[in-house]
Amino acid sequence: MWFNDVIKGAGLGLRTAFIEQVFDNPIKPDWFEIAPENWIKKRGYFRKLFEKIRENFPVACHGLSLSIGSPEPVNKKFLKDLKDFLDYYEIKIYSEHLSFSYLDGKNLFELFPLPFTKEMAYFISDKINQVQDFLNRTLIIENISYYYVPYMEISETEFIKTILKKTGAKLLLDVNNVYVNSVNHGYDPYKYICSFSSDDVAYIHIAGHHKIDDNLIIDTHGNEITNEVYKLLDFTLDKIGYKPVLLERDNNIPPYNKLLDEYMKLKSRVEKYERV
Fold this sequence. Notes:
Layout: E1 10-13, E2 31-34, H1 44-56, E3 59-62, H2 76-88, E4 94-97, E5 100-103, E6 106-112, H3 118-135, E7 139-142, H4 156-167, E8 170-174, H5 175-185, H6 189-194, E9 201-206, E10 210-213, E11 216-218, H7 227-240, E12 245-247, H8 256-274
Parallel strand pairs: 1-2, 1-12, 2-3, 3-4, 4-7, 7-8, 8-9, 9-12
Antiparallel strand pairs: 5-6, 10-11
Helix pairs in contact: 3-4
């Protein structure tokens, strides 16, 4: 019943703001990414629209609520609802943020950074293994943008690679987040990218940001992608090889036709590597 090919090429984050226009436009994204929390309990008209999307496009899930870094155990009720959704729609790809967003059972409505320590890496790894066993899927974890590091015993890249090694999880490499953090924290984004291999990375995110000044960038997902981020994306695809790339636009979403202009700019870049 459902379109079940793996993702490839350039994808687009699906939003209710334009879901009604997807089939009216001759330009069709290669695949869509959704936040499962926004669709698990959705019913009626928009649920039918989503099911039409699923019947015609590959779909990946990118979660917001797993909060893998919280000190509490993983929410089993949430995992059960998530697994039922993923299984019903035959969605194989599920990614989440390497962060925490719940504390003492309360939703903080933000993705908070974790201390880069070996102890935290081992703690996260144990929880990831539990999630993977329950969902019967490989978890894909995303490097987040952050403005404060609680504590750093090891580098962020070593932190991530330790988790990947102990769990078999894969990395959702957010190139914009790498660039934003490199400006805000004064490190070399190209060196960061070189820390990872093709085997480490499942797919890539790219998005826009808002520059406050030369030393401060806010990750908004509400602006067009800058030339600096595109340059880093090109370097990433040269370094690790072809990977599917998703355009994220969560805020200040333009009319669908204009959004597709930006999507096609990304797609033309990704196709050069897809053909190699």
